[in-house]
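Bug report

Summary: structure tokens for N-acetyltransferase domain-containing protein differ between web form and batch submission.
Environment: batch mode, default settings.
Steps: 1) Submit the sequence below via batch. 2) Compare with the web form result.

Sequence submitted:
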Amino acid sequence: MAEKEQAEGAWAKNNGDVVWVLVDRSDPHGPILSACETHRIKGFLKPQGHDQVQNAWYYALAYVITPPQYQKRGYATHLLRLLHYVLCSDPPAFPTDWGNFPTVLKDLVAEGQDPQLNEEGAPPTPMSAEVIIEKKSLRTTDFPKACGMLLSNDVSEAFYARCGLGPDGVGFIAPEEWQWELEWELGNGVDFSHWETLYESDIPPIAALLSRLSEQRVQATSSTNKAVFCPDPASEGILTFASVRGAYGPQPAWRKFPQPLGIRLPAHKGTSGEVHQDDTIILFALYNQQVGDGLLITYIHNLSPDVLPSALSALDRLISEQGAGWNMGRVWDLDSSNDLAAAWKQSGRRVNVNRRRGTGSHLLSWCFYQGKTEVLDRQLWTWL
């Protein structure tokens, strides 16, 4: 799966997907003490007190792993704390008791050049930094400075809360209001006229539209008392990550390819194939066992309560056509006070609205480097 992801995943292009490892300074080519994987993603940021949106980068933390013999020694925590310093756009002073700053990029790659590797695939000279990158052909431009790091947490909140910028920095936070999930019962829909099924070739203009609207939303939100941030749906491969990633590995017998990625209700007659701001767009992942069972709604755009019954019928039909055995669907970032959630409850289907909690619940967690930050989009498409 890892090789397939590196070869085919749009998010992995141009070294967007990288593994970092922690090693002993005195033995940089010795045993790996801890490791993690990151994805590089674009976003829109309006810093606190500013009135203009900036293009920004963030890194999504895919996993952290420590060999059994090195666990419970603080290596994973130290790896992430060091990594924040490497990636942060404006880090605080490096703690003197940590030794030298991890000059990972300077040591590994000269500006604008590929690293020269020996026959074993390792740099020819020892590196002084504790953090190194497990990948070839890297450039400093592959690691733009970031505004923060995202995590879909399946383990301990307490552990990641300790992994902040510096020894006393605030680590990953996962407020309860970020964790809403609505589950609903799939049925036998009858009213699904005019809905179009979306495939991979339909996604680029949709991503461009959603990107523009996300930037406008950040611009329109006050940053008087906090920074404002939204991931960029046009960041390569991210909008459909859950769908594409779910197609890696063993697949159920009912899976058909090419896989549908969403449905669209054009706002204007005769505009099939043309994307408009007032279209209704629903993106989904038909199958992703890393997230869980069911039809996974990853992005909702311009879905009004009065259109919801037709949308649910269209999704029912699609599940039936695909032969999927799902009897329920899930959507993130809809709480009980939301008008759309209320319409879902009035649809005549069994509906549950709850907060995700505990191990394996994919808690949306952020570690922002610029302090208090409002996140404007917490839908399932941001899962990594």
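Above is the batch result. After comparison, the two runs are identical; trailing whitespace caused the diff. The domain at 2-178 is CATH 3.40.630 (Aminopeptidase). The helical segments are 2-8, 75-87, 104-108, 157-161, 203-220, 241-246, 308-322, 339-345.
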